[in-house]
Amino acid sequence: MDLFAERGIGHAPTSAISAAAGVAEGTLFTYFKTKDELLNELYRELRKEMDREMVDYPFTADAHTRLRYVWDRYLSLAIEYPKLLKVM
Q1: Per-domain residue ranges for the chain?
Q2: CA 4, CA 21: separation in Å to the nearest integer?
């Protein structure tokens, strides 16, 4: 995630990703067939983290309260995890 946040998704070659992970590039492809597959899995993990942050979402509240909740939560996440939101 750090590498994607620093370089951008299009400028992070698999050689740099594997180096950052401390594995050989071939090892990376043992777990992920393509870079797209790796990105999809990263996205899923980041979404799970974000979902955990929204466990107390006010489903039954009015639209204004629900929108305000999402806005405030995203701002809090951006402050606490800026790289996460940048990659998302």
Answers
A1: 2-87
A2: 12
Side chain identity at residue 23, one-letter code:
V
Q: Which residues contact 50 (CB under 8 A, 6 or more apart)?
A: 77, 84, 88
- Angle at which helices 63-80 and 35-53 cross, to 10°: 120
Q: How far, in Å, are 10, 30, 72, 88 from residue 48 at the CA level?
A: 23, 24, 18, 12
For 33-73, the pLDDT digits (tens) are 999 999 999 999 988 988 888 889 999 999 999 999 999 99
Q: Three-state DSSP class for 73?
A: helix
The CATH code of the domain at 2-87 is 1.10.357.10
